[in-house]
Design a protein that fits this description.
290 residues; alpha/beta; Hypothetical Protein Tm841, Chain: A,domain 3; 2 domains; four-stranded parallel sheet; 13 strands; 24% strand
Length: 290
Amino acid sequence: MKPIILIDSCSDLPLKYVEEHGITSFGVIYHFQGRDYKDDFGKSYDYHEFYEAVRVGEMPTTSQAKLQDYIDVFTKYAQEGKEVIYLCFSSALSGCYNTANIAKNMVLEKYSDADITIIDSRSASLGEGLLAYYAFDMLNKGCSKDEIVTWLEENKLKMNHWFTVDSLDHLRRGGRISSTTAFVGNILNIKPILHVDDEGRLIPVAKVQGRKKSLRSLAENLSERIVNPEEQVIAISHGDCLQDAEHLKNILLKDFSFKDVIINCIGPVIGSHSGPGTMALFFLGKNRHI
C-alpha cells in the first residue's frame, strides 16, 4: 500500500500539479479585506488580484492551519490504515509543525496503531514544494515510506533558498529591518539578498543596488552552490512578477541544463510577508551554509 504524502499550501506548488496528483493539503489561513481565506493554491482567490490589492495598500495578515483540520485528516487516514507523511512548512516561520504534532498525539490516543510521520521541512515556498515534488516522484516509483522519509531528512537541509524583494516595506512590517533602513533602502534602490538557514529562518545575507543586479545575484548563488544541475528540477517562485521570473530562468539556462524548471506565483500566505515583486530561487546544493 502506498503511503499518503500530505503538504500545506505554503509549498506554493502549481495548482495544476496539486490537482493532477490528487494531493491532500492543509490550507494556511490569511486575513484579507475583512475576511478569512484558506489558501488553496489560488483556486478560490486569484493571485494576481491579491497582489494588485496589496500594491494599492491592502494589508493581509496570516495564521496557521487549524488544529481540527489536522485532526480530521489524520483521523481519516488512521481509520483507513494508511501510512502518512506530512511535509510541513518550516517550524521557524510558522506554528503549523507544533499544531500538527498536537493533532497527531490526539489521534494516537484513539488510534494507537496510526502511522503518522511529521517532517519539519525547514523550508518555505517552492523550497518546501520541491521537496514534495521529489517525494511524490519517489512515491510513484514505488519507494516505501521509510525510503521517502529517509531521503527527505537527509536532503531537506540541502535545499537552497535564495530570495530578493522589490520593496523593503514588507520586511519592515515583519520586523526584519528597521523603518529607517527600509526608508533609506527604498530611496537608494537597495535590494536585499536573503536565504533560509538550517533552522528554517529567513536571513539577510547581502545587499545589491537595483533589480537586475539582485536577479543576477540569485543566479550567481546557484552557480556557486548547485550540485549535478543536469539531474535536478529547480524552482522559481515570484510575487506576481512572471516576466522577471522568466528573465531569471533565461539567465540560468545560458549556463546550465536542468531536468526541468518549475515557475509559480508565491501564494498569499508567504506573499503577505514578502510582498509583490519578490523573487525566489530553489535548488539542491551540498548544504545551506554561507
